[in-house]
Structure formats: structure tokens, C-alpha cells
Amino acid sequence: MNNARLHVTFVDKEGAEHTFEVSAGDNLMDIAQAEDLEMEVEDPEKYDAIPEPSDDENDMLDLAFGLTETSRLGCQVKMAKEINGVKIRLPSMTRNMQAGDFKGSKKS
Known about the structure:
- The chain is α+β, with helices and mostly antiparallel strands and 108 residues long.
- It has helices at residues 28-34, 55-61, and strands at 5-11, 17-23, 86-89.
- Helices cover 13% and strands 17% of the residues.
- Strands 2-1-3 form a three-stranded mixed β-sheet, with no helix packed on it.
- The longest helix is centred in the first third of the chain and has 7 residues, at 28-34.
- The relative contact order is 0.31.
């Protein structure tokens, strides 16, 4: 098992960046939830390195607010060396937004 640490940066709706050190295989949704961030994946520079979405993911994305061509569900994207350093834009609004979302920046 490769224990190399990877990095992911989430950009919140105000434009503030939150960078975290993570492990290969961690999915983006778990990372965001552990850090109290609500998210949907968007990154034009590394999007092609992420495996194609499944039909089920595409069906769920059809219900999401404010999609872009590079939007993905965080629960479906696992960290890997190919996307090390990926920057994820957090949506300005989601269907499951919580009042405590986007509080204070936590950096590792």
C-alpha cells in the first residue's frame, strides 16, 4: 500500500482556499465532510484524470443545482496521485446545505 500523502484544495463560495493533506483512496466527499465543508467537484485542469462518471452518478448530477461541464459528486471521486493537488470549487448552493457550512479555514 502506498502511504504517500496527497493534497487537495477546496475553494469555498467566498473564494477562500482550504488545503488538506489526504491519503490515496480517500473520497472527496468524506474529506469535505470531515472538514465541515459541503461540496461538489469542479476542476478543469485535472478533470480528465478523474475516471468517467457512472450512469448512476450522472442521474444524481441531473438533480444538482448549478452544474458545470466539470461538476462531479465528491462521493464518487477518490484521491489518487494522478489528481494530487486538485483544486475543488465548492458550490454557492446545494440541496443539502447546512447552516454551519464554510465556517473558518482549517489547513493542514
